[in-house]
Design brief:
Layout lengths: L4 H37 L7 H25 L6 H27 L4 H5 L15 H9 L2 H29 L3 H26 L2
InterPro entries: DUF305_CopM-like, Ferritin-like
Keywords: Signal
Protein name: DUF305 domain-containing protein
């Protein structure tokens, strides 16, 4: 047994060295991975005037979509599928508003200065509803409200898609360009969904 002790000790020391090296490598990989994830979450800092104009306008555009969804969801006797869609639109677009506000701040722009003066309905952003349109939606009930919401939101989404397509041609910010691609994909699919819902109301 004594003759095996030195070998056992060497083996143990070797194993400890290997494990320590592996642990160090794993920690380095973890640190690099964490650093990569952190970097991916940071705003690149690249942007141009087209990005600022687009994000400012899309904040207003999204705010109205959230408002329209809230109006519909406050009503009774609305088609459940339409109500579910309105909830999905609201839940998706509010976080995007928050993200875009953060981008403007990171770019050195005050969100209130950039879009606060454009808060009136129908301010010229594509697909925006007018004050009268919003009033009509507020006054409608039941199937009439569901139908009007769908008709208005289709136009609203079409405007957002058009804005996003223009931004893809002119923008610079990787984060904002990625959002534009997502808006086009998601809202075009929702337009098709809303057209199908209209046929059943």
């Amino acid at each position: 047994m004594k003759s095996r002790h030195p070998a056992t000790l060497v083996t143990a020391l070797t194993l400890a060295t290997v494990l320590a090296a592996c642990s160090q490598n794993d920690q380095q990989e973890t640190d690099e991975s964490d650093h990569g994830e952190h970097s991916a979450e940071e705003v690149s800092g690249e942007f141009n005037d087209a990005d600022v104009e687009y994000v400012s306008g899309m904040i207003v555009h999204h705010e109205q979509a959230v408002e329209m969804s809230d109006i519909l969801l406050a009503k009774d006797d609305v088609d459940t599928d339409v109500a579910s869609l309105a909830e999905e639109i609201r839940d998706a677009q509010q976080p995007e508003i928050d993200q875009m506000v953060t981008w403007l701040q990171d770019w050195g722009h005050d969100p209130e200065d950039d879009h606060g003066t454009h808060g009136d309905h129908g301010n010229g952003h594509e697909g925006m509803m007018s004050d009268d349109d919003i009033a009509d939606l507020e006054a409608a009930q039941g199937d009439e409200a569901a139908r009007l919401f769908l008709e208005q939101m289709i136009v609203h989404h079409e405007g957002a898609v058009s804005m996003a397509e223009d931004h893809l041609a002119d923008g610079k910010s990787p984060e904002a360009l990625e959002l534009s691609e997502e808006i086009i994909s998601v809202q075009q699919a929702e337009i098709e969904q809303m057209e199908d819902l209209l046929e059943n109301i």
